[in-house]
Design brief:
CATH superfamily of the largest domain in chain A: Zn peptidases
CATH class of the largest domain in chain A: Alpha Beta
Mean pLDDT of chain A: 95
Chains: A alpha+beta, B alpha+beta, C alpha+beta
CATH topology of the largest domain in chain A: Aminopeptidase
Order of helices and strands of chain A: HHEEEEEEEEHEEEHEHEEHEHEEHH
Number of strands of chain B: 18
Number of strands of chain A: 17
Radius of gyration of chain A: 21 Å
Mean pLDDT of chain B: 95
CATH architecture of the largest domain in chain B: 3-Layer(aba) Sandwich
Shape of chain B: globular
Order of helices and strands of chain B: HHEEEEEEEEEEEHEHEEEHEHEEH
Low-confidence stretches of chain B: none
Low-confidence stretches of chain A: none
Oligomer: heterotrimer
Radius of gyration of chain B: 20 Å
CATH architecture of the largest domain in chain A: 3-Layer(aba) Sandwich
Number of domains of chain B: 2
Strand content of chain A: 25-35%
Helix content of chain B: 10-25%
Distance between the termini of chain B: 36 Å
Helix content of chain A: 25-40%
Largest sheet of chain A: 11 strands, mixed
Distance between the termini of chain A: 39 Å
Number of helices of chain A: 9
CATH class of the largest domain in chain B: Alpha Beta
C-alpha cells in the first residue's frame, strides 16, 4: 500500500489551478485506475471514479467529492521584464510579497512576487498593504526573453516545496484540498478489502475555488442518491482561536447545517464513536463553503454530508495539515460505505434528530 | 452593419422588458434561421443547421436586455423616484435622459448634496418628466425606463447607450446571416435578463443542452486616462476571454479561438476581467457542465449612457465567429 | 577569470565552480550574532590559500596575505558573513514560538513563508490567518509581528528554544542570467572575497575580513579594521537594485542601482563619504579593463565602510557592491555577470594599486 504522505507530496508538486486541473488529474487517474472499476472525465474536467458495489442490479449510488483545484495567480500584463498578476481562488494580498512562484509560460519559469519600494507606489500608498495591482513577479530574465516565454493569462503556481514537520504534519501549498483528495485515496485503499452494497463514485472536482463548477455539474451526470463533500476546514492556530476552528491532528469535523442532511450527520457521528475516531461537530449555519453547497441542489437534490480535515494557514503556500486526520477521514468514509444498507435511503428523514 | 447597430441601440429593452428589441431581432433574422422560437423567459432562440459528422451542438448567446430604471414612487410634486434594473451607477445618472416603455421621456435630477465629497446614491436621484404634480404625472409606479439618446457615429468608433450588449446582438445577427456551411447545429440565443443575473442564458442552456457555449458580450478596457490596469484596448481586435469575475473559460476553447484567429490573420486580444461576468458563466455550469468561453468586444464607459466600441473590433468579431463556426471544432484534451 | 595566480593556485575555471560556492553560501544560515555556518565554509575555503587565518574576539575571520617586499601597502577588504533573520523570543504551546527581527526586515514580507530554525535547521512556517476569516478592512492593514508565530508543527515545542535564530528557508536556484536565493546580501561579497584571497597579488599586504554583525551596525568591521590597521579599505557588499517600474510607469529616478549595470561604486551613503581617490582609481581601473560599472546612487544606507573609515586615525575607504533586487526579503535576485564583473574589477584594482594612491591629498 502506498505511503499517503509520499502520494500527497507528489500531488503537491503538480500544478492544477482552478480551471486548469489536467496535471493533477492525470496523476489521480494513474493512481486510482488500479483501485477502481471505471474512470471518466466530465465535460468540465472533473474525474469520476467508480468502485462498484456488490449489491443487486439496481444499486443505489454514493458520490464522494474532494475538489482537486488549487488557488494561485495569473499573469495580467508584462512591464519590461516584470509581470503583473491577479489571483485565482482567493489569495490575501498580504502573503504575496517575497513568495516564490512558478510561472507556467511556454516553459516553466521560477520567479518571486515582489513589492516595489514605497516610492514606486502611488502617493499615500506606502507603509501599508500593497494591493495586488501594484505587485510584480520577477523571473530573473531579460525583457526580450520574458516577452517570448510569457503571455497574458499564463498561470502562476506557488513555488513552495512541501515539507514535513514535527508531529506527523505536512506543510505546503494546495493542501486545500489535496489533503482531502488523499483522504479519498485512503478510502479507496480501504475499500479494496471491504465489501459494500452501494456503488461509490469518487469525484475529484474542478473549479471549487472559483465557481463550484465541478460540484454543480458532476452530480447531474452521476445522479447520486447521497453526496458527501470532503474538504479542509480551519484548524486552531495563530490568529485563529475562534470557536469555529478545530484542533490540528485531533480528528475530523462532521458538518451540521442546512447543507447537511441531519440523518447523515448522525450516522457519521455514531460511526465515529463506535470506531473511536475522534471528531468535532462543525456548525455550518449557512453556506458550507464546500462542494456540498452545490451538490445538494443539483437536479432533484440529494441528501448531503461534509467531512472536514482541519488545516492551518488556509490559502497560503504554507498550509499545514495532520496526516493522522487524513487517514481518519479516509477510514471513516470507507467504514460508512461498508455499512450502507441497500435500503438506507428509505430509513432516513429530516425529522427526529 | 452600422444601420443595424443604430436600430438596436436606439430601441429600449431593460431587463425583463425585452419585447421591443426581440421583435426587432426577429425581423432581422427570420429569413436566415431554420427555426425560430421564443422561450418561456422571453429569450429568442434561432437554430441554424443540424449536426453533421464531427459537428457539435453549439449555443451562442448575446443578451437583449440593458440596464434600466423602474419607478418606485411619484411624489406630490410629480417627481419620480426609482430603483434600478441591473448595474446602474448613480454617478452616471444626473443630467441623463430616460425613456419609459410607454414612450414618456424625462431627465434625471439630483438633490442638493451636503458637500462636494458626498457620494451620489440612487436615493439622491429622481426623474423629472415635466409633470406639475402627482396627478399630472404620466408614469405609474412599476413602469420601467432605460437611458435614452441617439447613437453617435464617430467614424471608426461608435458611442451609444446599451452597446452592452446590443453590439453582441448585432454581431450574432450578422454572423447568422453570413454563415453558409457549418458542420454544427448552431443555436443563436438572444437572451433576456442578463443584467440581473444571467437568468435567460441559464434556462436556455438547460433547454438546449449544448456541447459548447460561447457568449458574445462587451468587456472593459484599460486604455483610458487613469483607467483600470487591464491589457485590453479599443481597436486591437475582439477579445478572447480567459477569465472574468465568475468564470474561467475552458482552456481548450481559448486555445481553439486563439488558433483560429491566428490562422485567419485576424487581430485578437486576450482578456482578463477582474469583475463582472457574462452569459457564458451560466452556460458553463448548466446540467453536467458545458465547455464555455466568450468573445468580448472591448468597450469603454460600460454601463454609462455613452458606451464606446471600435467598429473594426465589431467586424473582426463577426469574421472570427463566422470562421470558427464554419469549421469543425476540436477541443484539444491536453490543454484542459 | 581563468589563469594561474602567483601562488600557483588555480583561479576559478568555470561558472559551475562559482555557482557551487555561491549556492553553498546562500543556503547557509548565519543570522547576525550566529555566523558559525558561514564561518565554517569560509575557513574551509581558505585552507588552500597562502593566508594567515584567525578568528577574532567577535567571530570575524581575518586572513592576511603578506607581501613579498618591504613596507607594502596594506589593503583591507571586507565582506559580511551575517544575514538578516529572526530570534525566537517566547515558547507557546503546540510548537508555536513568538519571535523578533534581527536586522532590517519589512514585516510585510513575513506572512506565509517557511523558515529554518536553529542549528539543526528545523523546518517551520510563519503562517497567516485564512483569507476566509478576514474582513476587507482587515486585509488593508498590515499584519503586525505581534500576530505572527513561527510554527514548528504539533510536536515542535521540544525542537527549539527561546534564543534560537531562524532564517528564511529559501533554496538557491539559477534563472537564466540570474541568481535567486536568500542572503545574497552579502554572500556575493563573501564569495568574491574568498576568490580575492586565493589569488592575492604579492606586492601588497592583502587583509581580508569576513565580518560579523554588519546587519546590526557593522560591528564586526569596526574591530577588524582597528586590529588590522590598513592603509586603505574596500568594503564588498550587495546594494539594493530598486530598478522596478513605477506604478504609472513614469521614469524611476530612485533606482539606487540597476541589475546588469556592473559593480556599483559608492560615492556617498549615510554612513560613509567614499575617499574620492579610491573612487577615481576604481573608475579608471574599470575603464582600462573595459569592465562595466555604475555609481550607486548617493543616499541612505551603509556598509562595513561606515565603521572602517572612522577607526584609529582614519582609513580611506570605498565600497563596491554587486546590485541585488529584494534584499532583506525571502528571495533576492542578482545577476551572475554583475558578480563576476565585481570580482574582476576588484581583482584588477588589487593588481594595480600602489602606495602612490595616497600621495595626492584627498
Amino acid at each position: 500500500m502506498m505511503e499517503i504522505s509520499q502520494f500527497l507530496i507528489k500531488m503537491l508538486s503538480l500544478p492544477g489551478l482552478s480551471g486548469y486541473e489536467a496535471p493533477i488529474r492525470d496523476l489521480l487517474m494513474e493512481t486510482w485506475r488500479p483501485l477502481t472499476d471505471d474512470l471518466n472525465i466530465s465535460r468540465l474536467g472533473s474525474l469520476h471514479a467508480l468502485h462498484r458495489g456488490a449489491g443487486l442490479d439496481s444499486r443505489p449510488c454514493l458520490l464522494i467529492s474532494a475538489h482537486m483545484d488549487a488557488i494561485g495567480l495569473m499573469v495580467t500584463g508584462i512591464v519590461n521584464e516584470f509581470l503583473r498578476i491577479t489571483e485565482i481562488g482567493g489569495v490575501d494580498d498580504r502573503i504575496l510579497p517575497g513568495q516564490r512562484v512558478v510561472v507556467h509560460g511556454r516553459r516553466d519559469l521560477p520567479g518571486v512576487v515582489v513589492k516595489p519600494p514605497d516610492f514606486l507606489l502611488p502617493p499615500g500608498k506606502g507603509g501599508q498593504t500593497v494591493a495586488r495591482e501594484y505587485l510584480l513577479v520577477d523571473v530573473g530574465l531579460l525583457p526580450a526573453e520574458v516577452n517570448q516565454v510569457v503571455r497574458l493569462g499564463d498561470l502562476v503556481s506557488f513555488g513552495q516545496e512541501p515539507f514535513e514537520l514535527s508531529g506527523e504534519a505536512l506543510a505546503g501549498h494546495s493542501l486545500d484540498n489535496r489533503a482531502s483528495v488523499a483522504a479519498l485515496t485512503v478510502c479507496l485503499q480501504e475499500l479494496q478489502h471491504l465489501k459494500h452494497q452501494w456503488d461509490v463514485w469518487l469525484v475529484a472536482t474542478t473549479q471549487e475555488e472559483e465557481t463550484l463548477g465541478g460540484a454543480f455539474t458532476s452530480p447531474f451526470e452521476i445522479q447520486p442518491d447521497i453526496v458527501i463533500a470532503v474538504d479542509v476546514t480551519f484548524a486552531k492556530g495563530p490568529g485563529v482561536n475562534e470557536h469555529t476552528a478545530y484542533p490540528l491532528g485531533k480528528g475530523n469535523t462532521l458538518g451540521w447545517g442546512p447543507n447537511i442532511h441531519p440523518a447523515l450527520f448522525h450516522t457519521f457521528k455514531d460511526l465515529a464513536e463506535r470506531l473511536e475516531i475522534p471528531y468535532s461537530m462543525e456548525a455550518m449555519p449557512r453556506h458550507s463553503g464546500t462542494d456540498a453547497y452545490a451538490m445538494q441542489v443539483v437536479a432533484g437534490g440529494a441528501p448531503s454530508m461534509v467531512v472536514g480535515i482541519p488545516l492551518r494557514y488556509m490559502h497560503t503556500p504554507v498550509e499545514m495539515v495532520s496526516l493522522k486526520d487524513i487517514q481518519r477521514a479516509g477510514r471513516i468514509l470507507a467504514e460508512f460505505i461498508a455499512r450502507l444498507e441497500p435500503d438506507f435511503l428509505n430509513k432516513i428523514t429530516w425529522e427526529d434528530h | 452593419m452600422k444601420n443595424l447597430i443604430k436600430k438596436l441601440v436606439e430601441s429600449i429593452g431593460p431587463s425583463g422588458y425585452e419585447s421591443d428589441v426581440r421583435r426587432l431581432v426577429q425581423e432581422e433574422i427570420t429569413d436566415f434561421a431554420d427555426e425560430l422560437r421564443t422561450d418561456a423567459m422571453g429569450s429568442l432562440i434561432a437554430r441554424k443547421g443540424t449536426k453533421k459528422g464531427n459537428g457539435m451542438r453549439i449555443m451562442l448567446s448575446a443578451h437583449l436586455d440593458e440596464i434600466g430604471l423602474v419607478a418606485s414612487h411619484i411624489d406630490e410634486k410629480g417627481f419620480i423616484r426609482f430603483s434600478t434594473l441591473g448595474g446602474v451607477y448613480p454617478r452616471n445618472c444626473p443630467g441623463g435622459r430616460v425613456r419609459f416603455m410607454s414612450g414618456v421621456e424625462g431627465v434625471i435630477g439630483v438633490e442638493r448634496l451636503e458637500s462636494s465629497e458626498h457620494n451620489i446614491t440612487i436615493e439622491h436621484l429622481y426623474i423629472d418628466v415635466g409633470a406639475a404634480n402627482r396627478e399630472d404625472c404620466p408614469v405609474k409606479i412599476g413602469e420601467v425606463a432605460a437611458f435614452h439618446r441617439p447613437m453617435l457615429d464617430l467614424g471608426n468608433r461608435i458611442a451609444a447607450k446599451s452597446i452592452d450588449d446590443r453590439i453582441g446582438v448585432a454581431i450574432l445577427i450578422e454572423t447568422l446571416r453570413q454563415i453558409k456551411e457549418s458542420p454544427h447545429e448552431l443555436y443563436f440565443v438572444f437572451s433576456v435578463q442578463e443584467e440581473v443575473g444571467l437568468r435567460g442564458a441559464g434556462t436556455a442552456a438547460y433547454a438546449l443542452d449544448p456541447e459548447l457555449g460561447l457568449a458574445v458580450d462587451v468587456t472593459l478596457t484599460g486604455d483610458t486616462p487613469k483607467g483600470p490596469k487591464m491589457e485590453v484596448s479599443l481597436g486591437k481586435g475582439p477579445a478572447i476571454k480567459i477569465r472574468d469575475g465568475r468564470m474561467l473559460s475552458d482552456p481548450r476553447l481559448i486555445q481553439h479561438l486563439v488558433q483560429a484567429a491566428q490562422n485567419a490573420g485576424l487581430p485578437y486580444q486576450l482578456e482578463i476581467l477582474e469583475g463582472g461576468t457574462t452569459d457564458a458563466s451560466a452556460i458553463q455550469i448548466s446540467r453536467a457542465g458545458v465547455p464555455a468561453g466568450c468573445i468580448s468586444v472591448p468597450c469603454r464607459y460600460v454601463h454609462s449612457p455613452s458606451e464606446m466600441v471600435d467598429y473594426n473590433d465589431v467586424q473582426n468579431a463577426v469574421k472570427l465567429l463566422v470562421n470558427v463556426l464554419s469549421n469543425p471544432i476540436q477541443l484539444d484534451k491536453s490543454a484542459a | 577569470m581563468t589563469g594561474q595566480s602567483q601562488d600557483g593556485s588555480q583561479l576559478l575555471k568555470t561558472d559551475a565552480d562559482q555557482i557551487n560556492l555561491l549556492e553553498k553560501l546562500s543556503n547557509a544560515c548565519a543570522v547576525s550574532g550566529d555566523e558559525g555556518e558561514v564561518r565554517t565554509i569560509v575557513l574551509e575555503a581558505l585552507k588552500s590559500a597562502r593566508a594567515e587565518v584567525r578568528v577574532d574576539a567577535l567571530g570575524n575571520v581575518l586572513a592576511v596575505c603578506k607581501a613579498a617586499g618591504e613596507n607594502p601597502l596594506r589593503v583591507l577588504l571586507t565582506a559580511h558573513m551575517d544575514e538578516i533573520g529572526f530570534m525566537l523570543t517566547d515558547k507557546e504551546d503546540g510548537g508555536l514560538f513568538r519571535f523578533d527581527l534581527v536586522g532590517g526586515i519589512d514585516a510585510r514580507y513575513l506572512p506565509g513563508k517557511p523558515v529554518w530554525v536553529g542549528k539543526n535547521r528545523v523546518p517551520g512556517v510563519i503562517g497567516a490567518k485564512p483569507i476566509h476569516l478576514t474582513t476587507q478592512d482587515e486585509r488593508k492593514k498590515t499584519i503586525s509581528l505581534d500576530n505572527l508565530r513561527i510554527d514548528l508543527g504539533p510536536a515542535g515545542s521540544e525542537l527549539a528554544k527561546v534564543g534560537d535564530r531562524a532564517a528564511f528557508a529559501t533554496a538557491f536556484q539559477q534563472a537564466g542570467p540570474s541568481l535567486m536565493g536568500k542572503a545574497l546580501d552579502d554572500r556575493l561579497g563573501v564569495a568574491a572575497l574568498i576568490e580575492l584571497v586565493r589569488h592575492a597579488p604579492a606586492h601588497i599586504e592583502l587583509q581580508a575580513a569576513f565580518t560579523v554583525q554588519e546587519e546590526v551596525g557593522a560591528r564586526g568591521a569596526r574591530v577588524a579594521a582597528y586590529t588590522l590597521n590598513p592603509d586603505v579599505a574596500f568594503a564588498i557588499d550587495s546594494t539594493p537594485a530598486h530598478d522596478l517600474p513605477g506604478w504609472d510607469e513614469t521614469e524611476n529616478a530612485h533606482y539606487n542601482s540597476r541589475l546588469g549595470g556592473g559593480p556599483a561604486i559608492y560615492i556617498a551613503d549615510s554612513g560613509t563619504i567614499s575617499d574620492p581617490r579610491l573612487v577615481q582609481f576604481l573608475v579608471q581601473t574599470a575603464e582600462k579593463h573595459h569592465l562595466p560599472y555604475q555609481f550607486r546612487q548617493p543616499g541612505a544606507g551603509g556598509t562595513d565602510a561606515s565603521q572602517i573609515h572612522k577607526q584609529r586615525q582614519g582609513i580611506p575607504s570605498v565600497s563596491v557592491s554587486t546590485p541585488g533586487r529584494y534584499a532583506h526579503t525571502p528571495v533576492m535576485i542578482a545577476r551572475l555577470e554583475d558578480w563576476q564583473n565585481t570580482l574582476a574589477l576588484l581583482q584588477a584594482a588589487l593588481q594595480a594599486i600602489s602606495p602612490d594612491i595616497l600621495t595626492t591629498s584627498r
